[in-house]
Fold this sequence. Notes:
The protein is built from 17 helices and 11 strands. It has helices at residues 8-13, 34-43, 46-50, 53-66, 80-87, 106-110, 117-120, 122-135, 148-157, 165-173, 175-199, 216-222, 224-233, 256-260, 275-282, 301-315, 335-348, and strands spanning 72-73, 89-92, 96-99, 141-146, 203-208, 237-238, 241-242, 245-249, 266-268, 287-292, 321-325. The strands form 3 sheets. A 7-stranded parallel sheet has the order 1-4-5-8-9-10-11. The protein has a two-stranded antiparallel ribbon with strand order 2-3. It is globular, with a radius of gyration of 19 Å.
Amino acid sequence: MTALKNDTFLRALMRQPTDYTPLWLMRQAGRYLPEYCATRARAGSFLQLCKSPSLATEVTLQPLARYDLDAAILFSDILTVPDAMGLGLYFAEGEGPRFERPLREEWAIRDLQAPDPHDHLRYVIDAVSEIRRALDGSVPLIGFSGSPFTLACYMVEGQGSDTYAQVKRLMYARPDLMHHILNVTTQAVIDYLNAQIEAGAQAVMVFDSWGGMLTQAAYLEFSLPYMARIMQGLTREREGRTVPRIVFTKGGGLWLEAIAACGADAVGLDWAVEIADARRRIGDQVALQGNMDPSILLTTPEAVSAEAKRILASYGQGSGHVFNLGHGISQFTPPENVAALVETVKAESPRYHV
């Protein structure tokens, strides 16, 4: 593999000294970019875009051609794992992802098996290899997966939900079945992320998008322990350097201390957490990633720049901060506002690293 020219992101995740605060954006390859929309139209559907390694490579690289970002993230979807388990993923126009065969019967839950990523998810692994070659050592590549609990939400509900009534009913009425889903899915995620690392991913992230809607007791039983198992099961070193691990629970600000103890190298923050407070609470244990409200990118370049400066000042002096959003970028974001964000972080952050 080609030597890495810019490893600032990886060093920040390991809380090593850097010259500036590295930056990447969740969902940085997406519908706010006209070039992405053109490629997606050419693919025919979102799922076909995900399942074509060459097109996934193309859209992964698009934001890097526009902006001075410090990492690329694999273009894929968290629901590829349950799709590989045979649940039948499809995307209804205007309604988001759905599963043809959600887990509602005990026999279906008992029959659930972790897929072989080199077989059922070969297209993702091939995309990782192709993206890594195309990057040619310019910046690191991030691999990712959904958390077991977040995947289980979709697997049981069959689609997104405001209440997650089906999964909560299962969780409280039949915790044994819920734990079975989570055990199988945890093994699937470990295998999947390790296959991504083997193919060339240089850091990995677990997205716990729905963990924040749990009670504290339920989060500490049904979400966090499974992410901790994933951290323990991941390949720790590849190509002569550590592979950093990031966990992100949206809505998890109340439990930062527990999350920081799960074995990850970095904790992602949503916008509800003040980054200075997060650093005071857990910043001597892990790096912090975040945490601008994506809605600010819908405003003006001046407002975006001011908020970026505020977040940098809130974190303060020293390494261990990866600038990012508190969740994924909106499809309605003007691309010039992203440019203002990137330029501000690049211009203003070096003063915090002297």
